[in-house]
Fold this protein.
Amino acid sequence: MKPNNYVSEKWPARWRNTASLAASALLLTGLASFMAQDESGKPDETRFTPVVVAEDLDEPMTFEVTKDGTAYIIERKGGLKKYDPTTQTVNLIATIPVNTKYTSKEGKVSEAEEGLMGLSLDPDFEQNHWIYLYSAHPTESKHILTRWELRDDKLVESSQKVVLEVPTQREVCCHTGGGMTWDRTGNLYLTVGNNTGNQQAAQTDEREGRSSWDDQGHAGNTNDLRGKILRIHPEANGTYTIPEGNLFPKGTDKTRPEIYSMGHRNPWRISIDSQTGYLYWGEVGPDATNDSEIGPRGYDELNQGRKPGNFGWPWFVGNRQAFPVYDYAAQKPLAKKDPDKTINSSPNNTGLTELPPVAPSFIYYPYGASEEFPLVGTGSRSATGGPIYHQADFKGAKRPWPAYYEGKWLATDFSRGWIMSITMDADGNYKSMERILPSYHPVEPIDMKFGPDGDLYVLEYGSNWFRKSDNARLVRIEYNGGNRKPLVQASASRQGGNVPLQLTLSADGSKDYDGDALTYQWKVTSPGMAPRTLTGMSPSVTFDKPGVYSAQLTVTDSHGAANSQSIRIIAGNEAPAVALNLSSNRTFFFPDQPIQYAVNVSDKEDGGLAGATVSTAKGVPGKISPARVAMSINYTSEGFDYAEVMQAQRSVDASTQFAVAQALINQSDCKVCHQIATKSVGPAFTAVAAKYRGNTSAVDKLVTKIRQGGVGTWGDVAMPGHPAMSVADAQTLVHYILNIDQKTLSSLPLQGDYVVKLPEGDNGKGSVLIRAAYTDRGGLQKAAKPVPSQTSEQMIVLRSPQVNVTTAPIKQGVDVKSDRAEKIMAYAKSYLGFRQFDLTTIKRLQLDATAQRREGSAGGTIEVRIDSPTGPIIAEKVIELAPEVDMAKLMAQMESGNSAKPASTSASAGSAPGAAGGKAPAPANPFARPPVFLTLKPTEGVHDLYFVFKNDQAKAIQPLMSLANIKFLNSDK
């Protein structure tokens, strides 16, 4: 039993009876920690909350957090930004001039990985305000480490000091490093990429004029700073000294004394264990899929450096697996090097000939399944790195992570998107790993570290490379080690009705993550009436008098933590009944094909629709004018959160066809500058509507302005552009604004066909929201206190027929990959499940499924079943193993310019700006496979749909195939 656990009645009596007061006090201080753990001591995932700290980032690279929660973030194109925790805003401090291109010998200019690459704050930043930036010089072929003074959110121009220069080449791409950290004695560590072109397996091209492709002159050169981890001691005057204990003593011929370790391809994010002084970093490896005569398959590495050393590149990878030096002139591999006595005989080497022995790798993994480290998964890879956790590093922190992670390395992979907790033994040797926070899927995590507040921060680069991504952000993962408040859900069997109104209140869905016993108390109130108190999960209640009531549910756990939620109940007016009927598919929409719909409305007091009558409260037939029923169909682009639309269904105004636009406004920054009828920073929406009334070109003009921004129409204040907003969503906003001042808002007919037209440039992966709503005339209109109206609606959300498999709510035995294309890796006896899909009219499925050798896949069978994983089979298909790709031939073609660079050997193979590869993905991909089509047995109605994967011959850790998208087709073509 760990000493920080609290005294439990489950303990043996001899433990409880011998606890002294002092020991009891010590034990009780660990109460929260114990409660946060399961039987193994591992904290429950529900105790961790990802909180988005900063958004609106353009290719973020790395960050630092200060004690007050301020975050400084750099962007590749040169932006230095600050997140202010008080205002919760992100502001640009400065734009550093940087180079972001490289130019080939043929004069072709391409995007490079370099730019503004590294950021670190001085250990005494709060006193001296020094900030260190590592960047690509804007005009000269070199990377520079500069020190600035940052005061009043500005870089003091006269304070700039060039601390260190790294000469580079800009003929070919890639690898820049840029990770920085400090040790306890004030030494600064800097990772520097090898700055070498990618070809074959290892870069050892010794031909004349090919030095940019020979890493023996870069990473393997003791007299070159590239492909190294440097250690220097910055001085107050902007220079640096060399600390004792680097790889080569100062003054050693043909060496650079700044080198702490060498033989790196692209060492990325680096951290130091504050207790041991060991270094930890991610190392992005080469791209070969299989072992061959030109070398072993590629491995990424998560490395540990206990002392200065040589990590072997370009002659070794993984656990000292050797590459032969390739003779490019004769086009044949030569002998392999000796890892204990490597000789660098390249004509491009200006350093020592005999190199230090090659250190072993700590963790190493290929594209395919890893026998040594199976939890890392398969597929694209870009080992990033992360911090070593020690609670002692966060004294006084308000929410430090639990002792369970003491001494563990939390590491992430840019392409695979997992966070691993890696455990070492007492000697620092690898012991085990486990995935943490599996429900959190960071999008291209490019940096990760703990802040002084004890929270773990993750910087997500986003899904677009070499350009701004909507999903680039800084996330803070907060830990709650104490008692959690209950989760409350209050509801009623009816939202209202005629008096006497009898209904049942319900606390169903309320729960406590700590497993505490819960008590339920309801307080029913109405103005002018004495409150009533009820207890229990589902008490019955009767309302004898008309009026508006509030029923507040308070749920309290056994430790006294409480949480509440209220619901509104209207007595004296029966809510109308709204029915939205579709004769077309009720799950999917199909572009350019009609949605056939019809609406029916009835109300106890108001009657029925358009000549149809029902008995009213007084027995008198009534009519509901179709003009008072709101009917809308909206296409919303991918990513729109329609939960807010669903929550707004009890609005007073039944003109709910604009609820999508209102939700877009709430989710965007519109309210910062605009109000409905009052001028703010920008014009009121009513003023915009008046200005453009009758202008037939207004919609297109305003859509462009929303997305691109503008200035001058309403004064000197510029309207910021929103390029991330889709054309479809911008059109929805414009239609709302231009009609906002109309007393009667137009609505679709209550019966008809609606053809969905995708806006130009839209990817078609959005949703169609079909809504019908009616607000009745209220109850007891002649009473002293009329009963308010009630609004009822029905909404159907039709999804795109193209479904990404990672959204499946049921996943059993599959591994989710969150690299450039989100997908799953399927294993034998694994399956995916989707709930309640309408299969009416669905004839075929199109699957992006493939069994790639480079991912270690075995191939197998996909069974499509309904209602359960063992239910009736309505389709099945065997996915054969993809043919082998001749990597040596492919690399030779690439070098000669005869083939587009494949995804596996460029950034799309799991690298990133600052990681492996560096070119934008090429259009031709030799690993791409044609889609797979499955013909379904005729199936009517709504069913749960399962995709079951089988191969009795595959190993347990061997994936069968990858699956990215499923497209539902309602035709045979």
Summary: The radius of gyration is 32 Å. The chain has a mean pLDDT of 85.
